[in-house]
Every structure is written in C-alpha cells, then in structure tokens.
Design goal:
Layout: H1 2-29, H2 49-57, H3 60-91, H4 97-105, H5 112-125, H6 132-136, H7 143-153, H8 158-166, H9 171-182, H10 184-199, H11 203-208, H12 217-224, H13 231-251, H14 253-262
Helix pairs in contact: 1-13, 2-13, 3-7, 3-10, 3-12, 10-13, 10-14, 12-13
C-alpha cells in the first residue's frame, strides 16, 4: 500500500489535469448547436463542422499568424539576450555587477499590471500601437530568463573559458562556441516556457493590438464570446490554440529531459 500511494496520487493529479482538456476536445467535436456534456460524450456523432465554421467565420488564420510571429520572434530574441546577459553576469567581472544583477532581478516583484500604462504610453509615443515591434519589444527584457541563464552558466567550469581565451578566441567566439553548445538543454527548456507564455498571453496583446488584423489568437477567440458563436465553435478554436503548444513540447521533449537530468550536476 505504501508503494501504491505515489502512483495513485499522480494518477489522480493527471486525471484532474487532463479532464478539462478532454472536455474541451469532446465539445469541439460535438454536433453544432451548443451541445455540451453529457451529449458531447457520444463520440459516434463527432464532426469537424465546428472547426470549419470557426475557421470560415472569423479571421482565425490571421490571428494564429500574429500569435506565431509574437511567440517565435520573442523566443529567439529572449533566448539570445538572456543567454548573453546570463554569461556576462556569471563569468565576467565588472564594477557593480552584483548590484546591477539584483536590481534587475528585483523587477520580478513588480507585477506587469503595474507597468502596463507606462509601457503603453511609451510604445504609443514611439508609434508602436498596432505593430509587431510594439507587441514584441516590451516583453524582451525577461528577468526570469536572465536569472535562469545566469544560474546555469555560473556552474560551467572556468577552465573552459580560460582555455578558449588562451587559444585567441574573442568574447563573441567564446560565447558562440563554448557557452551556447553547453547551455542547449536550458535553452530548450526556457524556449518552451517563453513560447507558452507568449502564445497564451492575453493582456498585452489586447492593449497594443487595437485592430482586428493585429489580434492574437487568444484575444480573437475571447472576442467571439460576445458574438453569435456557439460554445462548440469556441471550444474548437481553443483546441486549435493547443496544437502548436503540443508540437513545441513534443519537438523539444528530449532537451527538456536532458535539462532535468543535468540540473543537479555541479561543475
């Protein structure tokens, strides 16, 4: 019985986690007309009509493209900037390094909602409303990403960097040939998290994307609730939003496993 406690507990947690997702998929494939549980449990009447209706009745493909651009560009830039900053904070020596690092980290205690208006006023003054750069740039200074990178890089042996410099490698070459190959697991892990954060982000895209053409998928689907759209179509749209997240997780699962396996190792 003692050995069964943990598996049973994990099974219960998994069941509670998966149930809302399963209900969403069942309602998405239910016949049109607002059919929910328990009628949606009849899988013999499953249909693709709800997906066809939501794709044909709203600009979902444009919203999905906006979400994809917002998420992918943010992932690339955040990983680049966070890894460079993490390398500087971990292995470089310069005056005020610790003060600057902890001051930067202190921004984690400030909720985004408190800085939303200043962000919007600044972006609007620069002409970034309803633009991709106005959507992406304010999210690039990610304190959590810098902290994770710094904590991972600080464990790397200093001898690797000293050997590279003795061979005449520049700082950029040290970063590209020594740092980046060694931090691939944490890059993949952080990339998944950053992608999910931006793909599911709602508040900032809602504020900055004021036209229908600049809506992200989460914002666009939320606007459908105020229109004459059935719950089946809304669940079909929500199911579509989950697919890219599953693909990203599936593609990077091996790196996630490597990151977990090596997270306890010391240099």
């Amino acid at each position: 019985m003692a050995r069964l406690r943990l598996p049973v507990l994990l099974a219960l947690v998994a069941l509670v986690t998966v149930t809302p997702f399963a209900v969403m998929v069942l309602v998405a494939f239910a016949p049109p007309g607002g059919r929910t549980l328990p009628g949606a449990l009849d899988v013999t009447r499953a249909t693709w009509q709800n997906f066809a209706d939501v794709l044909g009745g709203a600009d979902v493909l444009r919203w999905a493209l906006n979400s994809l651009v917002y998420s992918l560009v943010s992932v690339v830039l955040i990983l680049l900037f966070a890894s460079m900053a993490g390398y500087a904070f971990a292995k470089k020596r310069f005056p005020g390094r610790e003060v600057l690092f902890w001051a930067f980290l202190a921004t984690l205690m400030v909720p985004f909602q408190a800085t939303l208006i200043p962000y919007y006023l600044l972006v609007a003054e620069l002409g970034g409303v309803d633009t991709y750069w106005g959507l992406i740039v304010p999210t690039l200074a990610n304190s959590q990403a810098v902290f994770l990178m710094r904590q991972f890089i600080v464990q790397l042996p200093d001898e690797l960097f000293e050997a590279a410099r003795m061979d005449g490698a520049s700082e950029w070459r040290v970063y590209t040939t020594v740092v980046l190959p060694l931090i691939r697991p944490v890059l993949a892990t952080l990339g998944v998290f950053v992608f999910l954060w931006h793909w599911n982000d709602f508040l900032w895209p809602l504020v900055i994307g004021q036209s229908e053409a600049m809506r992200t998928l989460t914002v666009g689907l939320a606007t459908l609730e105020g229109e004459n759209v059935t719950i089946n179509q809304i669940m079909a749209g929500a199911t579509i939003t989950v697919i890219p997240c599953l693909l990203v997780f599936g593609l990077l699962q091996r790196y996630l496993t490597d990151s977990i396996a090596t997270s306890g190792m010391k240099a």
